[in-house]
């Protein structure tokens, strides 16, 4: 089969690799149809690492995917060949203390598609995953929408573990795919007002059309002064979705005393910092968000029922043989890109 391999910093090649085989009775062979380019993929593309996770070239990335079941192991019961499925990239062991207490996303032996020393990515024509990673989708849902459920589920999870949304004043710093994935469930669950910031005007305009009440460009205005002027009592919760130190600093300035900071973005730097004076005096609660624990099916249901309408996030589409072009576009924040999708021509 053909696989997109990272072969060096900012280098991708489409190469021939062995077809994956069903090994375990619960394995499912999926023919990939759609894959989204994630910011974490781009970290590996540009830096070769995310914190302590360092890749060894060549390495296949990709984890936001959907496709069609081709074959199944003997023990598989809930999908069959021909089924269209969203692929959950996390493959927990189901047996450790974390899995048994409902924290499969922090499984001690977690394997995740496209993660160094864990599992090859799914930017290939075929992938083998365990049955529990396959979520059947209705005929009304496209494979692109199913693939988009992966980042969207992170936003659904982040909102779920934050604060009750009804009547809340919400800040979202960063209007990329994860920021917009927080916007949709926050708005759907009754947030009173949503403030969003970014450095790209095209993304800010998209955020406005998708439901943000207020948008601000951090390079063109004092967003702290402007938000605090609009909200005298400041914000109840802020979702930091861009992984930038400046955004973390801004979050402390616009959160009310007793407010909650949700760290959703992945910083490129190995360390971040806070003003302990502001953090302590306001008694700000900080919650880190790790992927999308148990929220994939809920997210697919939201897409299917149109409770959330995430299609506008998919701003660019590329054929598989143009994968490098897609990565360069996302890495350079070019042409107003939000989410670039790689399509295999499968439906």
Question: How would you sum up this structure, described in words?
Answer:
By secondary structure, this protein is α/β, with parallel strands linked by helices. It has 2 domains: 2-151 and 293-343, Medium-chain alcohol dehydrogenases, catalytic domain (Quinone Oxidoreductase, Chain A, domain 1), CATH 3.90.180.10; 162-288, NAD(P)-binding Rossmann-like Domain (Rossmann fold). It has helices spanning 39-47, 97-100, 143-160, 177-188, 201-209, 223-230, 245-254, 276-282, 296-305, 323-331; strands spanning 2-8, 11-16, 27-36, 49-50, 53-54, 59-60, 64-72, 84-87, 90-91, 111-112, 126-130, 134-136, 169-173, 193-198, 214-217, 235-240, 255-263, 285-288, 314-319, 339-343. Strands 3, 7, 8, 11, 12, 19 and 20 form a 7-stranded mixed beta sheet that branches. Strand 16 (235-240), helix 7 (245-254) and strand 17 (255-263) form a beta-alpha-beta unit. Helix 3 packs across helix 9 (296-305) and helix 6 (223-230) packs parallel to helix 7 (245-254). The longest helix is centred in the middle third of the chain and has 18 residues, at 143-160. The chain is globular, with a radius of gyration of 20 Å. The mean pLDDT is 95.
Largest sheet: 7 strands, mixed
Number of domains: 2
Compute the gyration radius: what is it?
20 Å
Described by its quaternary structure, the protein is single chain
What percent of residues are in strands?
25-35%
Helical fraction equals 25-40%
Q: In CATH terms, what is the architecture of the largest domain?
A: Alpha-Beta Complex
Low-pLDDT parts are: none
What is the class of the largest domain in the CATH system?
Alpha Beta
Structural class: alpha/beta
| CATH topology descriptor of the largest domain | Quinone Oxidoreductase, Chain A, domain 1
Shape: globular
- Order of secondary-structure elements: EEEHEEEEEEHEEEHEHEHEHEHEHEHEHE
In whole angstroms, the N-to-C terminal distance is: 18 Å
Number of strands: 20
| The CATH superfamily title of the largest domain | Medium-chain alcohol dehydrogenases, catalytic domain
């Amino acid at each position: 089969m053909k696989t997109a391999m990272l072969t060096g910093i900012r280098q991708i090649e489409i190469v021939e690799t062995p077809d994956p085989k069903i090994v375990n009775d619960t394995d499912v062979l999926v023919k990939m149809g759609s894959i989204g380019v994630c910011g974490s993929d781009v970290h590996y593309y540009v830096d070769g690492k995310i914190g302590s996770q360092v890749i060894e070239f060549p390495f296949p990335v990709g984890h936001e995917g959907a496709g069609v079941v081709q074959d199944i192991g003997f023990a598989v019961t809930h999908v069959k060949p021909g089924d269209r499925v969203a692929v959950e990239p996390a493959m927990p062991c189901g047996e450790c203390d974390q899995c048994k207490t409902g924290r499969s996303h922090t499984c001690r032996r977690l394997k995740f598609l496209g993660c160094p020393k864990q599992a090859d990515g799914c930017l290939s024509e075929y992938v083998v995953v365990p049955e529990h990673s396959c979520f059947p989708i209705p005929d009304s849902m496209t494979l692109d929408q199913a693939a988009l459920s992966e980042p969207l589920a992170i936003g659904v999870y982040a909102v779920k573990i934050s604060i009750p949304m009804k009547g809340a004043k919400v800040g979202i710093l960063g209007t990329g795919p994860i920021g917009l994935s927080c916007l949709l469930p926050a708005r759907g669950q009754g947030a009173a007002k949503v403030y969003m910031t970014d450095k790209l005007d095209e993304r800010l305009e998209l955020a406005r059309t998708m439901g943000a009440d207020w948008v601000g460009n951090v390079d063109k205005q004092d967003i702290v002064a402007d938000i605090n002027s609009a909200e005298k009592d400041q914000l109840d919760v802020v979702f930091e979705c861009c992984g930038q130190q400046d955004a973390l600093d801004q979050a402390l300035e616009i959160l009310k005393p007793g407010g909650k900071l949700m760290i959703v973005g992945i910083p490129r730097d190995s360390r971040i910092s806070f003003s302990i004076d502001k953090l302590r005096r306001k008694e700000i609660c900080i919650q880190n968000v790790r992927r999308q624990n148990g929220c994939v099916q809920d997210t697919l249901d939201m897409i299917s029922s149109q409770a959330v309408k995430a299609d506008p996030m998919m701003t660019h589409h590329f054929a598989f043989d143009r994968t490098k072009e897609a990565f360069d576009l996302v890495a350079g924040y070019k042409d107003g890109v939000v989410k670039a999708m790689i399509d295999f021509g499968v439906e």
